[in-house]
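A reminder before we start the practical. When you read a complex entry, don't treat the lines as separate problems. The point of joint prediction is that each chain is placed relative to the others, so the output describes one connected object in space. Small molecules and nucleic acid strands, if listed, are placed in the same frame. In the example below there are two entries. Take a minute to note the order of the lines before looking further.
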Amino acid sequence: MTIAQQQTTENKSQIDWSRIGIWVGVVLILLFCLAPVLWQLLTSFKTNEAISAIPNIYFPTPNQLTTSHYTNLGWTFWRYVFNSGFVSIVSTMICLAIGAPAAYTLARLKIPGQSIILACVLIVSLFPYVLLFLGLLEIVKALNLGNNYIALIVPYTAINLPLTILVLRSFFQQLPKDLEDSAKVDGYNTVQMLLQIVLPMTIPALVTTGILTLIFAWNEFIFALTFITEENMLTIPVAVARIGGASAFEIPYGPIAAATVIGTFPLVVLVLFFQRRIVQGITAGAVKG
Amino acid sequence: MATLSLENLRKQFAPKVVPVKDITLTVKDGEFLTLLGPSGCGKSTLLRLIAGLETPTKGTVKVGEKNLNKVPPGDRDMAMVFQSYALYPHMTVAENIGASLKLRKTPTDEIKHRVGEVAHRLGIEHLLDRKPGQLSGGQRQRVALARALVRNPDVFLLDEPLSNLDALLREQVRADLKQLFRSQNKPVVYVTHDQTEAMTLSSKVAVLKDGVVQQLDSPDRIYTHPSNQFVAGFVGSPQMNLITLRCENNHAIMGDFKLKLPNLTRNPSKVVMGIRPEDLAVASSEDAQTIQGKVFLSEQLGREELISLNVHGSEDIVLRSLVPSDHDWEGDAITLMIPPHKTHWFDIETGERLNREDYSPPVDSVPATAQNRAE
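Here is the predicted structure of the whole assembly.
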């Protein structure tokens, strides 16, 4: 009895140290990563006096908090959110609609010169896209597409296609070929097989690449700045950058912080919502596993 | 009703990659044909050719009188069970089994009835609402079988359906399979590299090597009358003893001993002798043809003991024999009887069987030896 008790106390002290160590590490890393975001969030809710107060206020009192930064953004800001959302969602959809069939073809069919095609796709993705935009600007001007959603949707789609194709291709290669053969023997024709058997299993990969594409399009700045000048066509990153103070010497920290929070919020929700989908291995159990 | 026949089937992927060379065979109703061979012998490609997943370079696949070469897999009325089972992961078991019926626009009531019936038969009724991911290996295997059975097809094709099960389950499912397909009375083509499965399940076995049928026969004929050295070595465990011997005056010389050659189709100067370990028995006094040797290794198999011995007078001849396990033979000298009627003789170059026999092969089987002899 006494021996048993001694052992449990010993075990306790050992376990405690290693667990504490892990949690200290976790908290430190989280703080390090989230600090800028948390600071932005805090700033967006502080009154202007609290923002400029020295020393910094980390834990504001209720009378130092306000929602006026958000309410002052006004309805025009929702217009920017809509612009960003529309451009990114449409370009993501087009990207997946073109990329998925291309990836499937590259993964399954034996096309002559396949490696050359893949190399080209890879080279396009390596090209620094900032160098493209002067050329694109000329095209946009020539086609008279300035201040048009198409001027953003097409380049975003094109820039994201290589990544989409490469990621989806490696996913398709992992999909067991037997499933497709089995579908053929069961009597599915090619279109039915792709839509009813292959597509449902591809959803996790589509969601993952779709989110990456969407994040890129949502955050993109230079094209949006160059191709769009009309006020009510702006996307969020450009709109946030344009928020100015009453005079040249005043930087409106509060409104900028509020705009950033609103601009980031949809992405955070989206990623959290689809996280399960991404992690969930939907193919589990298809073949021996 | 349905007879599956393959005529001069050939599949060529590249000039030097020819997994199926020239295969002609037929499978009638109720016949269970097993394609047996080592990996890379073309057996899976042959099955895929039958299913229509590959198109033949030459030759035809027929069911009855109908040439199926241009018919897509889904319209061939053949059901296939895959080695990996290939269940659709996003569908429930019931949807998996009923998928092919649904595609053929079968009324919903009938689908439900047929799925229920086949599930009852295989004992998977309680699993119908689950997804394949929630099933064990054995259960998935039965779902895959159910998916084939529910269609009531003309021909069943099975591609190593037991290879993903553990040994105990495999034995049990093997017995179930045999009963199940006997009741179907349809042509069945079964691919395996496992000779036990081939022996126990089939009514006919085709041993394949390098895309050519080596022998097409009933399982017992394959075992007792292998048509060439490859079949002799491939079928049977422990493996048949295959020993190259010099011939002299109608006798084969094994170390200090002489074995009388039977009336062979040819009398070469060297010959390959084959004898199964279980056919080598400890000699009793009246046996005419015996050899002696020294046991250098014995392996306990439980029921019997597998001993390896050097024949007296020749160090490099090693014979293996199954003897009763009541005695530890290691290091002892032993006298073994070689029964002449269980000894196989093969040509040293072509590997073909040299024993003369009063046996004509079935009409539909063209063993490689027949072709070789013609050359």
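Discuss with your neighbour: Chain A touches chain B through 24 residues (CB under 8 Å). What might explain this?
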